[in-house]
Amino acid sequence: MAMEASELNEDIDIEQIVFQIISHAGDGKSDVMMALRKARKGEYDKAKELLEEANEKLSKAHKMHANLVQKESAGEEVNMSLLLAHAEDHFMNASMARDLVSEMVLLFEERDKE
């Protein structure tokens, strides 16, 4: 069964969105891990700056993911692929790391003030 041009374009569009999710989530997680390293050294301002940068990148990943959800809720078929599952996994892990490291930075900072 041959794929029509519009179906091919939709698949490419979705694939591009998936790669953007992976890219933004990966970059965000890198910033989060660097923030943790800075906090361990007592560089809290730099750690918080890196967490803000991570938030911006993860916000972009979230918007891209929301775009896919909106496509599906509008009736477009969004095929669940291994690549999409991989992107969602990256995004969830980066988001969890951000949440956890944000709390850790605050804990380290409070501890050092004592």
TrEMBL record:
<keyword id="KW-0175">Coiled coil</keyword>
<keyword id="KW-0813">Transport</keyword>
<dbReference type="InterPro" id="IPR003188">
    <property type="entry name" value="PTS_IIA_lac/cel"/>
</dbReference>
<keyword id="KW-0460">Magnesium</keyword>
<dbReference type="GO" id="GO:0009401">
    <property type="term" value="P:phosphoenolpyruvate-dependent sugar phosphotransferase system"/>
</dbReference>
<keyword id="KW-0479">Metal-binding</keyword>
<dbReference type="GO" id="GO:0046872">
    <property type="term" value="F:metal ion binding"/>
</dbReference>
<feature type="modified residue" description="Phosphohistidine; by HPr">
    <location>
        <position position="86"/>
    </location>
</feature>
<feature type="coiled-coil region">
    <location>
        <begin position="37"/>
        <end position="71"/>
    </location>
</feature>
<dbReference type="InterPro" id="IPR036542">
    <property type="entry name" value="PTS_IIA_lac/cel_sf"/>
</dbReference>
<keyword id="KW-0808">Transferase</keyword>
<dbReference type="Pfam" id="PF02255">
    <property type="entry name" value="PTS_IIA"/>
</dbReference>
<keyword id="KW-0598">Phosphotransferase system</keyword>
<keyword id="KW-0762">Sugar transport</keyword>
<dbReference type="GO" id="GO:0016740">
    <property type="term" value="F:transferase activity"/>
</dbReference>
<feature type="binding site">
    <location>
        <position position="89"/>
    </location>
    <ligand>
        <name>Mg(2+)</name>
    </ligand>
</feature>
<feature type="active site" description="Tele-phosphohistidine intermediate">
    <location>
        <position position="86"/>
    </location>
</feature>
<protein>
    <submittedName>
        <fullName>Phosphotransferase system cellobiose-specific component IIA</fullName>
    </submittedName>
</protein>
